[in-house]
Structures are given as structure tokens and as C-alpha cells.
Amino acid sequence: VLLIQPEQLQRQFESQMPEDVRQPSCYARNLLEYCSYSALHLMVQEPDHLSDREFRRLSYDMMLAWEAPAAGCETLSK
């Protein structure tokens, strides 16, 4: 979606986000949220993005990934 290498996206995350967001305890979750936000921000610029099957699938996959990106970050309450 973003047409950049994962390593470059990670470097952007590390250079743009404050240090408290990059702490090891929640690094995976925050990196995932940064990448997802970047992709969603780009995709919603397209007209009729909600009718796009690929967009709907990607947003669903993102919701699943947000549910449990790292074991030690947050405990989910169900």
C-alpha cells in the first residue's frame, strides 16, 4: 500500500515518534499502529474506498492485528 520497504517504514517510526512510544515494552504494538495509520491515511484519500474489497479486507486484518500485537504490552479484557 505504501510502496516503501518495511525497514524504511521502521526508520520513519523511530525518527518521528517520541522516545516513550518506542519503549521495548510496547514497541511492537506502537509500530503496528504507526504502520496501520500510515496505510489507512493513504487509502482513505481514494474516492469510494469503502466499496473497495481490498480496503475492507486490509482494515479487517488490521483490527485483528491490533487485538494482540505483543504478549507483554497490554492485557486484553474480554
Number of helices: 3
- The counted number of beta strands is 0
Largest sheet: none
Shape: globular
Distance N terminus to C terminus? 32 Å
Mean pLDDT: 84
Uncertain spans: none
Percentage of residues assigned to helices: 55-70%
Beta-strand portion reads under 5%
Number of domains: 1
How big is the Rg? 14 Å
Instruction: Indicate the structural class.
Output: mainly alpha
| Topology order in helix (H) and strand (E) letters | HHH
Labels describing this entry:
55% helix; 78 residues; globular; mainly alpha; 3 helices
Record the SSE blueprint.
Elements: H1 6-16, H2 27-43, H3 53-67
Helix pairs in contact: 2-3
Describe the protein's architecture and organization.
The chain is mostly helical and 78 residues long. It has one domain (6-65). 55% of the residues lie in helices and 0% in strands. The chain contains three helices and no strands. The longest helix is centred in the middle third of the chain and has 17 residues, at 27-43. The radius of gyration is 14 Å and the shape is globular. The N and C termini lie far apart (32 Å). The model has no long low-confidence stretch (mean pLDDT 84).
